[in-house]
Amino acid sequence: MFESVRGAVYGLYARRLSRRLAGGRLPRHVAMVMDGNRRWARQMGFDDPRVGHRYGAEHLDEVLGWCAELGIQHVTVFVASVDNVRKRDAGEVGNLMRMIEEVVAERLRRPASPWRVHLAGRLDVLPDSTRHALKLAEESTRDSGAPFGLTIAIGYDGREEIVAAVRALLEQEALAGRTVDDIAQTLSVEQIAQRLYTGGLPDPDLVIRTSGEHRMSGFLLWQAAYSELYFCDVYWPGFRKVDFLRALRSYAARHRRFGG
């Protein structure tokens, strides 16, 4: 009885939030740090906290559905940093990579998927099977005509991304016969931005981080310079639609200054 009443109240509240957002200012691009999978599993009483990665991967599918429903054109998700892949326990990393292959990459390749996949990060630090699965998802959706764009940040570090972009620019300009002084005189924000992993994609309007942590952890350091930030206390697998709608409500109520 209690569960049915709670479900009815939750549904009513979600519908009320949706109505308030209808016709309002929604972000074109939402980026999300999907944090707290293992802590959620411990909170739920699982003996093996790595189980949280599967629930987290499954939940991404649901959250992407909310984004598509609201017409959010682009989503970026932070799956794993370079340090996550290199420094965490091998068993945990292997489990996470399997979830990415079996749940995320596989579902995005389905013909009915509304998402075009773009990859951002050091794919060379990933296991061969994970890299292959993600590249296959990217290639198979590139010309699919899908209406929405999904960037998967994996093996990602924002500082490494900026260094790599500057290095690529210097190498290209050097091949063209330009000196360091020449490059310095004409160096621009646009030149670096074009060479980031996300070159050509819109910067995020809103960045959401779950789990209650109030930091960026190297995520989209360049791209999120003028983004609105929203920190949510729930762990990623427990991130509900009402939590998402609250983040959008917060965004709609803010006056974006873009550095001004």
Automatic annotation (TrEMBL):
Residues annotated as catalytic: D35, N84
Entry-linked InterPro entries: UPP_synth-like, UPP_synth-like_CS, UPP_synth-like_sf
Cofactor list: Mg(2+)
Keywords associated with the record: Magnesium, Metal-binding, Transferase
Residues noted as binding substrate in the record, renumbered to the chain: 36-40, 50, 53, 81-83, 88, 209, 215-217
GO molecular function: transferase activity
EC number: 2.5.1.-
Cofactor: how and how many bound: Binds 2 magnesium ions per subunit.
CDD domains: Cis_IPPS (cd00475)
Cited Pfam families: Prenyltransf (PF01255)
Enzyme class: transferase
Amino acids binding Mg(2+): D35, E228
Top-level division of the source organism's lineage: Bacteria
Function comment: Catalyzes the condensation of isopentenyl diphosphate (IPP) with allylic pyrophosphates generating different type of terpenoids.
Family designation: Belongs to the UPP synthase family. Z-FPP synthase subfamily.
Subunit comment: Homodimer.
Name of this protein: Isoprenyl transferase
Source species of the chain: Dactylosporangium maewongense
